[in-house]
User: Fold Lysophospholipid acyltransferase family protein from Streptomyces aureoversilis.
Amino acid sequence: MFYGAMKVSIGGSLKLAFRPWVEGLENIPAEGPAILASNHLSFSDSFFLPAVLDRKVTFIAKQEYFTSPGVKGKLTAAFFKGVGQLPVDRSGARGAGEAAVKSGLDVLARGELFGIYPEGTRSPDGRLYRGKPGGLARVALLSGAPVIPVAMIDTEKVQPPGKVLPKMVRPGIRIGEPLDFSRYHGMDGDRFILRSVTDEVMYKIMELSGQEYVDIYATAAKRQIADEAKRKAEEEKAAKAAGLGKTDQGGK
Assistant:
């Protein structure tokens, strides 16, 4: 009941304010389990997608959203629970992966929709990055549920990273046809199969989104961007210091 109330309140407000366009809604089954595998451009992705669906879709979110102290923390936790997100402890990579798989299997076992971002984190620059095989592929092969590729369009323009207030940009959602991986049943322990399944899904997402594909993980790209920003800052600092030194010498 709480989810329904939150969906009506938040989903209705989002649709009224931003008027998201949608293609491929007919690819979402009316009932039964399915995995929605989406690109990840913005924090708002987990709200726009559920807003346009008639069925509940459950995503996983970092545990910090559910455990922050104080009134604000409690309100945040209530909000994330209300929109159908589950907490996952990401303190250890392996533990986080196992928790995500278990959460996904539990959701699918109830005959519901499970949403997952194969990239593992938001894109730092709007491009599509390599999918991580541990979560999506294992959940798909262990559950036998179909994988439905989803492309979020322009949601990063609605709420750019680091910005609190959204911009009034009309985002879009393209939903592809379900992918059946039953041919790989019982092969969830084969890393080559997991890689193959993940890459097939990412290729479909790329077709739907029109994004440029980058064959590295988004987490690695974020490190590269941070390192480059740090290097430039150090060079600018050094150049400024050198310029001040020349000014001082000229004054003498």
